[in-house]
Amino acid sequence: MNETERGRVASLATAVGRGARRGGERARAGVYAVADRIITNAPRIAVRDLATLRKQFPGLGPEELADKLVAGAAGGTATVGAGVGAAAMLPVPPAMPTELAAEIVGVASIEFKLIAELHEVYGVRAPGSTRQRAVAYLGAWAEERGIDVAQPATVNAALGVQMKRELRQQVLRRGFRNMPSLAPFMIGAAVGAVMNRRDTKKLARKVRKDLRAKQVPWDLPVALEK
Q1: Which top-level group of life is the source organism from (predicted)?
Q2: DSSP assignment letter at 57
């Protein structure tokens, strides 16, 4: 190989390396954008309080009501997974990164609402404003746990200067947990639905176990007011 050829190879290697770095930067930017979208959406998601839930599901106790919420959420995330899985099996998948981002955000929204409403059912509502509660529940979703209202630091710690960065990292770990199993060819509608339903139920089991240890009976606030 003469000097001219070596120069061309070196230039090509530099160009390839530059392209890879740019691709990696774009990928990171996309991942952060999805996480930030989840964080931004959380306070806007309508969460039913305990009174509303009991009115909509009359005659049910806490565990039965929680079962209903879990079943509904699992059905919702299964539908999201089926849609994305079906799109991935097409001869020319349509904008798959966009489809994946939509699934992650969609599943996160459904599971966030579930977590928040489970806290209502078990009488462990996070303190503070709607936004403060959203941050607390988003942290609970990301860490797959229930909040501890008896220790305000566990709720308020996420509200400091570094909140967005720390919460983003939590959301990234939680929201992208299934990425290795989804790539490179995805999984088809049926398996996509099964995976999402399974993961949502697994999340709910962890959170419910945690909340049962802190559960406040429904009649306790009434008794205290007397």
Answers
A1: Bacteria
A2: S
